[in-house]
Specification:
16 helices; mainly alpha
């Protein structure tokens, strides 16, 4: 196994030297634009300690070596360079990376999820995380990737929903499916009718994009017992589906409306002087 190399630390050393040599030559904004270009060039620069360029150093590794190197970086608190991450991404979600998703180290799991992305090869591991006792942050990260590949995740999401596992997250995933499926539409409508979270479930209908939901949403938004937050999300959902709701409504007595109005008021600076 190759030794761990802090390529980002080496780049920072070279960057400090370069900035010192070119002091006053660039503005702060110009430096912001230049540094990413310098980092990219560094990837193709021979580094004696590595016996290769940063990009070449990782390109020589097998899938297993790349995954183990990533795990070691996290375990030994050595910064993970972008060159290592890009090489892992180029491999198209290898099995070695998927295995890291089952790690007990949350930082490593999050890295692995971000690198695997919406590749369907990682979906079984993602759903295992959702069905487990992991942190909410990790589950949120996994859910985002499954939403991006919702059609490929659909069947497993339906199964877990029916089993009562992470139902809200399963609804969120299913609502992002592009292919029309009456099973999904019926579930989203049932949850809208029976669930307590009207704004959330209205947003799922908006995301799913099935115009058949319009009459139901238009009927619901016309109720006098809805609050301002529900009204806002329902109106958004209706417009997202191509509809329109125009009846004037007065929410001045609604506590949510009042709270939002209070928060939207600009604070007055007592020290600010006005013209006489």
């Amino acid at each position: 196994m190759k030794k761990l190399i802090d390529f980002d630390g080496l780049f920072d050393e070279k960057l400090n030297e370069y900035m010192h040599m070119n002091a006053g030559k660039y503005t702060e904004k110009q430096w912001e634009n230049l540094i990413p270009k310098l980092y990219k060039q560094f990837g193709d620069t021979f580094v004696a300690r590595a016996g290769n360029t940063p990009k070449g150093y990782y390109a020589e590794m097998s899938d297993d070596e790349l995954a183990e190197t990533l795990a070691r970086h996290v375990a030994e608190n050595v910064p993970v360079s972008d060159f290592l991450c890009r090489e892992l991404e180029k491999r198209g979600c290898p099995d070695a990376l998927v295995r890291l998703i089952a790690s007990e180290n949350e930082e490593l799991v999050t890295l692995a999820v971000n690198l695997a992305g919406e590749n369907a090869r990682a979906f079984p591991a993602y759903f295992d995380l959702l069905a487990g006792d992991g942190s909410e942050d990790v589950k949120d990260a996994v859910c985002e990737q499954l939403k991006n590949g919702a059609d490929a995740a659909k069947e497993r999401a339906l199964t877990l929903y029916e089993s009562g596992v992470e139902r809200e997250r399963m609804l969120e995933i299913l609502s992002r499916c592009k292919e029309r499926d009456d099973r999904i539409y019926n579930i989203l409508m049932r949850e809208f009718h029976t669930g307590d979270e009207v704004p959330m479930h209205a947003s799922y209908l908006a995301a799913y994009g099935d115009e058949r939901a319009l009459p139901v949403l238009l009927e619901y938004i016309d109720r006098d017992d809805i609050n301002y937050l529900e009204y806002q999300e329902l109106k958004y959902a209706i417009e997202a589906l191509g509809g329109e709701y125009t009846r004037p409504r007065d929410f001045s007595g609604d506590k949510y409306y009042q709270e939002i109005m209070e928060q939207s008021q600009m604070p007055v600076d007592p020290e600010k002087k006005t013209d006489a």
